[in-house]
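Reading group handout, session on sequence-to-structure problems. Before we discuss, look at one worked example. The prompt was deliberately terse, the way you'd type it at a terminal:

> structure Helix-turn-helix domain-containing protein

The input record follows.
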Amino acid sequence: MGEIESFGDVLRRLRVAAGLTQQELARRTHMTQPNVSKIESGGQGVPEEAADRLDKALNADGRLMAVYDPLDTGPLNSDQRNRIAWTVRHPGLMDAAAVDVLAASLAAQRRVDDLIGPEPMLAGAKGQARMMTGLLKQVRGPARPQLSAVTSEYMQFAGWLLAEARHDRLAVEWLTEAGDIARIANDGTLAAQASNFKGFVARQRGRPTSMVKWFVRAFEEPGAHVAQRIGDTIQAAQGYARLHTLSPDSGYRDTALRLLADADDLVDEAGKVPPPATAYWLTPTFHLLNSGLAHLALHDHATAADHFRTGLESLPPNQQNAEWTTEYRLGLAEAEEAR
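And the output record:
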């Protein structure tokens, strides 16, 4: 089973990228070469002060500290790791507790993606997703419905990483399979999310008609969460706003504005419940980022700049420099320049 990068893995990758030997890094951080070697291999824990020195010596801008674990256990403890290994060997004996551990592993990886981007994680995520679909074929009994939902999550995560890395065709294939598994599991939240991610791919490819198609489909998915429906409405408005730029006299601008107003009407309802755990980022301030894209396409530069700025400033610290924020930062620069 592929795993996310440990502190030692990230340290080694950053050191090699910086063109430093272990001995050279050791001199910069007042360590010994054997200590650096043990840290990279996972054979030695790291005090926080030493971890911070390593981060600064590599000019890592917090990327190394982002994966620092003071207990050096990673996102899962040894019992959880052992449970996953046992489950893979004995899929017929899978229970709800084992599925919970698999879900916890994926939740940790999602947050690492916020910090280091898709490329270091892509191969492992694809391997894990295929492992999950293999397990799903072998598991029967009470754990199967729960496992189906978690398998869809793994497939979606791999599809999201593929989309981030601009492997668009593969991303759509993986997301389609994820959506199919979610519908079999009767999980409307996950099915809607798969369609939403396909809308994201369409946005990256500059295909506004497909954007509208997928975001509307996500909105209409039975069982979708209200926070998802707000985002889908806003992003469908983006699609219509981009269509307006291609055909200004078509009425698309009015449709985009109506959808943005509809999204505003849903915000109060969404504020009464937390976002779904599988889409933890769907907060009211996050929605401002996509609203900024819609207003930018409508050439409402003042509103776009305000929404981008508020949305970016409200992101949690571990998402402030995530690779996926680039689109919004560029949008903010464009809106401010055009004001």
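Points for discussion. First: The chain has three domains: 1-72, 75-184, 187-339. Second: Residues 70-74 have pLDDT under 50 and may be disordered.
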